[in-house]
Design a protein that fits this description.
The structure holds two protein chains of two kinds. Chain A is built from eight helices and twelve strands. Chain A is of the alpha/beta class. Chain A has one domain: Rossmann fold, CATH 3.40.50.300. In chain A, helix 5 packs parallel to helix 6. Chain A starts with a strand and ends with a helix. In chain A, 43% of the residues are buried. By secondary structure, chain B is of the alpha/beta class. Chain B has two domains: 271 residues, no CATH class; 59 residues, no CATH class. In chain B, a hairpin with a 2-residue loop joins strand 1 and strand 2. In chain B, helix 9 packs antiparallel against helix 10. The chains are: A alpha/beta, B alpha/beta. The interface between A and B is medium-sized, with 35 and 27 residues.
Chain lengths: 250, 437
């Protein structure tokens, strides 16, 4: 599904990712953990195609196709989705209109006609119920005045609507209370199939109790310095990141 | 010959076309003298500092339209809000088109200025209102001097006018360059309510300069909603001089949608002559190329307990330039005034310019007056957010621009008009987004 080879990227003169190698197959859940400033969010943004970051070396493949030169929307059309750590507030655009536009633009890119209105409404109803989202919420301006938890739930709602092949969840657990965390995690688990893949980026192990990863990677100083199974996440939770840093710096 | 000289000498020819022995002709004569004295404003005039008239004044305009030109409805239907039943006062090259119009004298007068100026039954209205709200500036004086034709709307008291009134001036380009000077007078009686839609539309590549004066008088508790769509051809320019005179508890709003034309100057003036008056001035400007749109507003708070709301949004691309000069005067007697002004702008190119200047002159001490202006670009993080959801760059930009302008559209009370404006905005932004805001 996703194959990253020797990826180097940064902002202006500052290098952040320094040789990432990662392979994620369909049906798998990967967790990327690491201390603050290790490059986790940068990795997510680079995969999603944020232009602010410059890729200086390496390649990213999606289902065998090099996507380095694709714009963010083209990557989205091919099934890449990123749940934002800080979803942007967009006054004047309702959640429903936003979703309608996103879905129909994606369909347009695939040569499909607009989704019929009744089908769209049915889908919105189903997915919002799954994430326990109040209907009123859908006619509000996108993320404007939403609480932290509402924003994150809204991100997963968008994921549910767009049905991506590769979902990258960037710190989706931050700002969530335990109930919201459970709702969000349940949503992600329900969306998980053998044909798609999820990359969970998180600082803490907490979310991984609900979304159980097949693989856990530790990112430090722009490189994946350790990979393992779910047990590695528990070890990190118990011991912190210092021992990893020591191992790397030794 | 300079345009000014040409106009002054044309006044003699004009006098051969009209009845000289009238109340109005005295006003015209005074007005041409005022114009002769003042001439056209230049860059030294503070109010014209950022708007140069050089380019549009150098054309050799015909002052009078020679030919009678006809248009068929199907040729120009798209410029009407044709989805709804309405009264229509339509002019072609400054001359009334009875063929395209639908006027009335049934309980209210929706008709022609030429009729109002000549028929004895309108003499009192004309004497009470004609040229009473203008500020006798250069352009409105020029219009007054040649005032002869336009829309005349007189609504008696306690009348809810069920159909909107459309005033449309077409120019066909039969002349090489045409100056058109429509003169509108709108008098709305106590407790009455009317909706008016105004448009100046060139159908030609030839230069057209329209210098229009509209006087609106809103009596006690009258409600007037006025909409202007300015989406003209690249060689058409407009000097719009609108004067709104409000009496107590009246509610008047003017929405100005400026999407095209070579140079547009909106001189929009509100005078509050009474208490508990509500005035609303809103606008959306979306332009590109080398277009220029200038909003020059004045709200004059004369008496206590009144409100005014100004909200202008501008989106400027390419080499376009915008001006917003919003003046609010609060007289000493006008205590408890609540005056709000906002001007927000997006610059889409490095070569686009906006000059924005709030001007508050407050002589009362117990008032709430706020103003704010912003100039910005589209937010990169918002763009990435939209694009990461599969919305392409162009559509994402358009969506953000729609969102930016949205709250001005919200107060448009005619749904079909709102739809139309949405459509024009979408065309302007070159996108087809499948929803209306």
């Amino acid at each position: 599904m996703l194959k990253i080879k020797n990826l180097h990227a940064g902002v202006e003169d500052k290098s952040i990712l320094r040789g990432i190698n990662l392979e994620v197959n369909a049906g798998e859940v990967h967790a990327i953990m690491g201390p603050n400033g290790s490059g986790k969010s940068t990795l997510a943004s680079v995969i999603a195609g944020k232009e602010e970051y410059e890729v200086t070396d390496g390649e990213i493949f999606l289902n065998g196709e090099n996507i380095d030169d694709l714009a963010a929307e083209e990557r989205a059309h091919k099934g890449v989705f990123m749940s934002f750590q800080y979803p942007v507030e967009i006054p004047g655009v309702t959640v429903t209109n936003f979703m309608k536009t996103a879905i129909n633009e994606t369909r347009k890119a695939k040569g499909l006609a607009d989704m019929p209105a009744n089908e769209m409404l049915k889908m919105i109803r189903e997915k919002s119920e799954m994430l326990e989202i109040d209907r009123k919420f859908l006619s509000r301006s996108l993320n404007e005045g939403f609480s932290g938890g509402e924003k994150k739930r809204n991100e997963i709602f968008q994921m549910a609507m767009l049905e991506p092949k590769l979902a990258i969840l960037d710190e989706t657990d931050s700002g969530l209370d335990i109930d919201a965390l459970r709702i969000v995690a349940n949503g992600v688990n329900k969306l998980k199939t053998k044909d798609n893949a999820v990359v969970v980026i998180t600082h803490y192990q907490r979310l991984l109790d609900y979304i159980v990863p097949d693989f856990v990677h530790v990112l430090y100083n722009g490189r994946i310095v350790k990979s393992g199974t779910a047990a590695l996440a528990h070890e990190l939770e118990a011991k912190g990141y210092d021992w990893i840093k020591e191992e790397v710096n030794a | 010959m300079e345009l000014k000289e040409k106009l002054i000498s044309s006044f003699l020819a004009f006098e051969n076309q009209v009845n000289l022995d009238t109340y109005v002709h005295g006003i015209r004569t005074k007005a041409i003298q005022d114009f002769e004295e003042k001439g056209f404003p230049g860059k030294k005039d503070e109010a014209w500092k950022y708007t140069s008239l050089n380019k549009i004044l150098k054309e050799d305009y015909s002052v009078f339209s020679k030919a009678e030109n006809a248009l068929e409805y199907h040729q120009v239907k798209k410029y009407f809000i044709h989805e709804i039943d309405s009264y229509k006062i339509i002019f072609i090259d400054g001359k009334y088109s009875s063929h395209l119009s639908q006027t009335t004298h049934d309980g209210l007068d929706v008709c022609l200025m030429s009729a109002a100026l000549s028929k004895p039954k309108y003499r009192l209205v004309i004497e009470n209102y004609f040229n009473k709200a203008t500020t006798k500036d250069s352009f409105d004086s020029l219009n007054t001097a040649f005032s002869k034709e336009g829309a005349f709307i007189h609504i008696p008291k306690n009348k809810l006018v069920s159909k909107p009134i459309q005033i449309i001036n077409f120019s066909t380009g039969k002349e090489d360059a045409q100056l058109i000077q429509p003169r509108n007078l709108i008098v709305v009686g106590e407790n009455s309510h009317v909706q008016i839609f105004e448009r100046h539309q060139s159908l030609t590549k030839n230069p057209v300069l329209t210098n229009v004066v509209t006087e609106v008088f809103a009596s006690k508790r009258a409600i007037v909603d006025y909409y202007k769509i300015q989406n003209d051809k690249p060689n058409a320019s407009l000097i719009d001089n609108t004067f709104v005179n409000q009496k107590q508890q009246s509610v008047v709003s003017v929405h100005t949608f400026s999407f095209g034309g070579k140079l547009i100057r909106n001189n929009l003036n509100f005078f509050q002559n009474g208490e508990q008056i509500d005035s609303t001035l809103k606008g959306i400007t979306i332009i590109g190329d080398k277009q220029h749109v200038d909003h020059n507003t004045l709200v004059h708070h004369i008496e206590p307990n009144c409100e005014s709301h100004q909200d202008y949004k501008g989106i400027f691309g390419d080499n376009s330039t915008g001006v917003f000069n919003g003046k609010v005067v609060v007289e000493k007697e006008a205590q408890k005034t609540n005056a709000f002004q906002a001007n927000n702008n997006l610059l889409l190119s490095n070569k686009a310019t906006i000059n924005t200047k709030p001007q508050l002159e407050i002589f009362a001490d117990d008032v709430k007056c706020s103003h704010g202006c912003t100039i910005g670009q589209l937010d990169d993080s918002a763009m990435f957010y939209l694009r990461s959801r599969g919305i392409p760059e162009k559509e994402a930009k358009a969506l953000l621009m729609y969102a930016f302008a949205n709250n001005v559209l919200e107060s448009v009370k005619i749904p079909e008009l709102k739809k139309r404006i949405n459509k024009i905005i979408a065309e302007k932004l070159g996108v087809n987004i499948g929803f209306d805001l």
